[in-house]
């Protein structure tokens, strides 16, 4: 019997990737560009976002850099309008995120507000805005970038990051339920340790908190990865591309680890 679950091929579809000026977001945007998506490359920093877009165009794709702070409602609305003006939004990748180190008992309300605002609240409201559009079209996919930190509270030294990423996993499941009947799929990816400037910044902050040299922090982190290697943005991007593709058409509400075996549930 033929399956009742169908999705269109992705070539020519419109995608938004937030936080795509560098790191994992840039890797995702480049991969989606190669797959034939038209990509809106959103970031706080327009010039760097445009550089990602230019790299997609230079490789034969279509992309535009766009300045957006995902914590601002007006910027989120502008992003959606920019996609709709270009024919509608097929894929949203919520990748923008920040990390902040602190010992758990030293967390201030300001720390909580800043981290939760970018990593959790903005993801919810980006999803909400995109889903209103997608549900009315009865098609669309969202991939949120969570973290294994949301499942295992991977270190005590970025406690609110852990809380925010757990929230992303929970909202992915809630919204997957909300969109399932209209065939809007919502999944998330949980990266482990990926080599980006976020990791470099954390090494320095952890060194300061623990008094250990950054090289020791890095060596201890590596020792916790069963595959014995850090990941790169490409490893995350490939799984995002799969979740967004028709190959994953019967998957929704999932939180997929990309962690070299660090997280196995
Ligand atoms: N690097 C890792 O090991 C790792 C592991 C697990 C999850 N993640 C997640 O992957 C995502 C990307 O991380 P990365 O390592 O590439 O980080 P990064 O710091 O290299 O890049 C983050 C990008 O997001 C942008 N950004 C930050 N705040 C923004 C805002 N308010 N609006 C728009 N853009 C904003 C930054 O300008 C930057 O370009 C984050 O959600 C992060 O939590 C990273």
The strand count comes to 7
Output the CATH class name. Alpha Beta
CATH superfamily: NAD(P)-binding Rossmann-like Domain
Radius of gyration: 18 Å
User: What is the N-to-C succession of helices and strands?
Assistant: EHEHEHEHEHHEHHHE
- What is the number of independent domains? 1
Question: What is the mean pLDDT?
Answer: 96
How much of the sequence lies in strands comes to: 5-15%
Looking at the structure, the CATH topology is Rossmann fold
Q: Give the % helix.
A: 40-55%
Distance between the termini: 33 Å
Count of DSSP-assigned helices: 9
Ligand types: nicotinamide-adenine-dinucleotide
Structural class: alpha/beta
Coarse morphology: globular
Q: How would a crystallographer describe the biggest sheet?
A: 7 strands, parallel
For the biggest β-sheet, the strand order reads 3-2-1-4-5-6-7
Q: What is the CATH architecture assignment?
A: 3-Layer(aba) Sandwich
Provide structural commentary.
The chain is an alpha/beta fold. The chain has a single domain, classed as Rossmann fold (3-Layer(aba) Sandwich), CATH 3.40.50.720. The chain is 49% helix and 15% strand. The protein has 9 helices and 7 strands. The protein has helices at residues 23-34, 46-58, 73-85, 109-137, 149-152, 159-180, 197-210, 214-223, 233-244, and strands spanning 14-18, 38-43, 62-67, 91-94, 140-145, 184-191, 255-258. It has a 7-stranded parallel β-sheet, with helices on both faces. Helix 4 (109-137) links the parallel strand 4 (91-94) and strand 5. Helix 1 packs parallel to helix 2 (46-58). The chain is globular. Residues 18-19, 21-25, 43-45, 68-71, 95-98, 118, 145, 147, 191, 193-194, 196-199 line the site of nicotinamide-adenine-dinucleotide.
């Amino acid at each position: 019997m033929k399956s009742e679950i169908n999705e269109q091929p992705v070539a020519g579809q419109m995608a938004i990737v937030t936080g795509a000026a560098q790191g994992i977001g840039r890797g995702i945007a480049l991969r989606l560009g190669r797959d034939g998506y038209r990509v809106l490359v959103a970031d706080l920093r327009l010039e760097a976002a445009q550089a990602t877009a230019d790299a997609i165009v230079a490789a034969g794709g279509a992309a535009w850099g766009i300045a957006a702070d995902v914590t601002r409602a007006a910027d989120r609305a502008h992003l959606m309008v920019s996609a709709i003006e270009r024919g509608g939004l097929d894929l949203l990748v919520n990748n923008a995120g920040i990390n902040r180190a602190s010992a758990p008992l030293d967390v201030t309300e300001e720390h909580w507000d800043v981290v939760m605002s970018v990593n959790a609240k903005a993801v919810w409201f980006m999803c909400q805005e995109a889903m209103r559009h997608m549900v009315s079209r009865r098609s669309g996919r969202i991939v949120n970038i969570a973290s294994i930190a949301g499942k295992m509270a991977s270190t005590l030294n970025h406690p609110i990051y852990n809380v925010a990423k757990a929230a992303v996993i929970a909202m992915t499941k809630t919204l997957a339920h909300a969109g399932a009947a209209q065939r809007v799929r919502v999944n998330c990816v949980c990266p482990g340790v990926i080599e980006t400037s976020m990791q470099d910044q954390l090494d320095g902050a952890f060194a300061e908190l623990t008094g250990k040299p950054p090289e020791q922090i890095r060596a201890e982190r590596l020792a916790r990865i069963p595959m014995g290697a850090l990941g790169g943005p490409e490893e995350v991007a490939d799984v995002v591309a799969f979740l967004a593709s028709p190959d994953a058409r019967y998957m929704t509400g999932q939180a997929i680890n990309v962690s070299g075996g660090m997280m196995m549930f």
